Each structure stands twice: as C-alpha cells, then as structure tokens.
Amino acid sequence: MKIDAIYLRELNLPLVKPFQTSFGVTRDRRVVLAEVHSEGLVGWGECTAGEHPHFSEESVDSCWQVIVDELGPMLASAEPEHGGQIPRLFGVVRGNRMAKATLENAIWDIEAQRKGISLSRLLGGTREVIPCGVSIGIQPGIDELLETIEREVAAGYQRIKLKCKPGWDLNVFDRVRNRFPAITLSCDANSAYRMKDFDHLVQFEAFDLLMIEQPLWHDDFYFHSLLQKRLSTAICLDESIRNRRDALAAIEMESCRIINIKLGRVGGFSEAIAVHNAAYERGIPVWCGGMLESGIGRSHNIALSSLANFSLPGDVSASKRYWTEDIIDPEVTVSSQGEILIADTPGRGFSVRTDRVQQLTVRKECIRARVAVAV
User: Which of 62, 73, 75, 81 is the most buried (most CB within 10 A)?
Assistant: First the structure.
C-alpha cells in the first residue's frame, strides 16, 4: 500500500472523573492520534503513552518526537503489504513500543478496509462478543469506592479490578468482600510493593482474588517467581511483558499464571498476537488491559480481545465511563450482561467523528516521505 500522508494530532480530552493509581492521578488525557492516508483509505492509530513516563519510559511528548522524526518518515517512505511487516520496518529504532504501535495499528486498520473484512477477523478473532470488566482507581475513601463498585456491578460488568498500594489494600479488600461476597474481584498494584512486603502480600489470599496484577518491580520476572511460589492466587504480569520473549521467559520461570496484553506496551498488533499465541500454547490465559484510551484505541482493544485466548474479562469498558463525549460513532457500549458485541463491518467497526477530532486538536503535524511539515 502506498502511504500518501500521515497526520499526527494531539487532542486534549478531560476525563469524567480523575483516575488514581499507585503512581499518580490523571484528570485529563493528552491523546495522540495517527491518521494514515493510503490510496483513498484512512487508518487510525492511538498512542497509549501517558502524560509522564510513569507507567513506562515513554510519554506523550517522547512518542510525538519519535513518530515525527523517525517512525513517520520511515512508514511514509515504505509501501507495506500488510501490518505484520511494520515491526521489521521499525526494527532499527530500539524500544519506543507505544510510538510504534500508534502507526502499526493504523496500517492493520487500512488492511482490513482494503480486504473488506473486520479488523477482528483480520487479526484471527473468533469471538462474537467479549466479556468486560472495569478498573477502579484509588478513591478518596472506602465509602466512595463501595458506591462505585455498586454502580459498576449493577451495570453488568463481569469483573471488578481495584487499584491498590501500601495503605490502600487489606482493609479495602475486606470491606469490598464483605459488601460483595460473590463478585469476581482482582487487584492491580502497578509495581507498588517490594520483597519486604512478601508476608503482607500473602495476606491478599484471604479475599478470593482472581489475580494480583504486577505487585513487584515493573521489569521483574525473578522475584515475581519467588512470590508466586508462596501464593495460591495467580499473579498477573503487565508491565514486565514487553514482547513474546518476555512472555516465554515469565511462563518458563513460573512468574505468573495470567498475562495482561496491552497493545501499546508490546508495540502493536503483531507482537500482541505473538504474545497471545505463546500464552495460548502453554495454557496461560490472557486479557486486554486498558490505558484510558479514546474510542479509537478502545476499538483496537475490542478487536484484539476477540482472539481465542482472551478468556478473562478485560478492561474494555464503555466510553461513557471515561468521556462525556467520545470521538467515535457509535460510542462503545456494554450490555447488561457485561459484554461488547464485535462489529463485523470492514475495519475497526466505529466511525471517527472527524469534526470532534478537529475541535479537540491542539497540535497537528503532517508527515510525508522523509519530510515533516507543520500545519
């Protein structure tokens, strides 16, 4: 496919309410979108990097620079046949996986449109609906948390994930379990604990958790393996899994029993499929994590979640949980059974509201073959 132009945009999207994790609070999202034009078709990609390099070493600004100066001109000068060729094209640039995923995922979108099939089918998806859970950030108080859980359970979500950190864990889990004894419950520490906390983490076993997500260092397998040996509850790895090799190493070392796959974290659809397959072949279930995406990134997550081994409810929830007004039509909705229907129309299955995108754009750049032009 010939790449005619790449338009990179930054949007400012205010969240419905702040989202707090162990490493900070997000109130507004600076969303970077790639609009790739190719022979009359337009593919969209979304950068899932945060405003600061806290979740990973990438940020909105670092991804913007790498796309404008390196990856964008490479793609604009190439004529890829399909999305699976993009990792090799970008191979000379080390790391920067979220920046790479922004462009690669747009190419998969274009490829699906060219073939007249849904993105989920192009990826190899087999599901017609996907199960959904929600991730609930650290709240001002436990009463507010219980009210939030009550609302999400009533909405039908099949799994509740609680962000946690030292000081916001055992008492919180106890109150939640007493109020909601039957819900599927998990927690996510975003690397907030250390070896000295092993005995403390073992106490999490009392709360019948589906999993404990990334309790230790963001780049660790070894100490997670030691902790997993002390737990009957499954450890889920998130930040540690950057690619298929990491997944294989973690599985071999018995560092986890579940893997969270995030498109940006692993560099795009190609590597996400490779991680999925490696886990599937070894009996390790996976699920799709969220990064406060707009509807464009959310539509990519929906398509990915249609693959066979995404057997656990992911963080692919409804648009209205995060945005008063999304940038896609229709917005993502979740049924009363906690499910999302997979679209079977060509491409991602959601139209981009270009008028709203234009309205929210605060920065824009046009990238062509070996040239970047400010507009």
Answer: 75
